[in-house]
Amino acid sequence: MSRHIGETELALFISDDLNLLRRAKVRLHIANCDPCRARVEIYRLDRDRLRQQASELPPGVDWDRLAAEMTANIRVGLAAGECVASRAKKHLKLGWQAAAAAAALVFLIGAALWLNFPPADKEVLGSAMRQLVGGRSHAPIEEMGPVVEASATGIELRENGGALKISQGTLRPVAVSVSAQGSASANYVDADTGQMTITSVYVQ
User: Fold this and answer.
1) Whole-prediction pTM value?
2) β-sheet bridge partners, residue 150
3) Phi, psi torsion values for 155, nearest 5 degrees
4) Rounded to an integer, what distance in angstroms lies between the CA atom of residue 174 and that of residue 188?
5) Per residue in 114-131, pLDDT tens?
6) Dihedral angle at the C-alpha atoms of 51, 54, 60, 64, nearest 10 degrees?
């Protein structure tokens, strides 16, 4: 059996909107196809019901006037939609302006804090930021001054091309910390005795 006729084409068949050749093909198909014939019967019943309801409308209905009112209502709806869209655009513009103002305020506060930082702290913080952004600084150690660093093996102090490393042998620190003022601490715990050792280095 050939494939079924589509719903749209069956509806057009019922409303006599198919050309003669296609109408003949659909008529031949539904004569031999029970599912399509059942669908056509449902469409016929719907069409008859609509005709009956249309005949029950009050006499003298001005269809042209109803169509004009419907068109006017559609235009009002479209105009209202444009007003809502322009209002949403206005709110979006205000949102961008508020975000720009907030960014400017954050920048001003950051600049004020930076200007009020002690010079030594500024230098240490600037060096740390350069290392974070671009990796380890390429400036010679002599130019950077003393640098203290805490790692998983201990604390290291570097200055003038030399380095001093402080560790607890094979013990690894359980916590390390570094401050912007140039100090570093490492906490060690001896597994046998449970004693804690805190090693701190301060750079002046």
Assistant:
1) 0.30
2) 155
3) -115, 140
4) 6
5) 667 666 666 666 776 677
6) -100
